[in-house]
Amino acid sequence: MSEILEQLLEARRAGRPCALATVAATTGSVPRHPGAKMIVYEDGSISGTVGGGKFEALVIAEALDSIEGKQPLLKTWPLREDQPESFGAICGGEVTVLIEPQVPAHRLLIVGGGHCAQSIAKLAAECGFFVTALEDREDILARCETAHQRLTDPAPGHIASRQWDKNDAMVIVSRHYDIDREALAAALKKGGMGYLGMIGSRRKVLQVFDRLKADGYRADQLANVYAPIGLDIGSDSPAEIAVSVVAEMLMVLRGTSGQSLKIQPGAGRYTSR
Q1: Could you tell me which residues are beta bridge partners of residue 73?
Q2: Angle 240-246-249 (CA atoms, 0-180°, nearest 5)?
Q3: For 264, left (φ over 0), alpha (ψ -120 to 50), or beta?
Q4: Which structural domain range is residue 62 located in?
Q5: What is the domain count for the chain?
Q6: Of 102, 120, 136, which residue is a domain's last?
């Protein structure tokens, strides 16, 4: 069991979505006893076992649904031939399995490792994001201490290799126009992330967009890019830029307005007690 739990911790450290399936209760003759565990990864691979055969295949299917829906499940499977839902099992008992998805609420990929990237990584991690930093300069990457993953992979290849969903965010804050453009092109081609932003002046952003349009990217694709990045709070320092960017990411990913919560005069009565 200790090996399974260590593998679970490793998956969580790596931000790899998975589900932990645990035999919670049994009656009669069953293949595994309470406490038996299995990890199911989002690609369908497993570690450990809860019994094998058709029963385990059904648990894996439910675990994959649990990962996608990010909802736990407690389900009982009868393993008796006299039960129509027993799928032909003849063990004679029944097994109850608890499936617990292990999925970060939000994942953030930061392309770049400079001062702004470091500040964004720190604040995003504190807000519960699983943060990956991409930077080809190892000495600069080492300064992104709060990122959960630090990689020197070329941005286009890494972006193309990942599976993205609506809870994922990508922020492009590299040191060079060409790196930003190549990363943005790869992100637009791959698609799937809930938030995509790029730092830069208005002039730089328009230059990047013009180049991408010349390369065949559509205006409606570019319209989904948050660039220049962040909310308008007059930010200047890397820490202030991080506040602006992370606030915008949360606003977009959570589907909120980003408006002030200030109560307006006449909006309603307030009674203190």
Answers
A1: 99
A2: 145
A3: beta
A4: 15-102
A5: 2
A6: 102
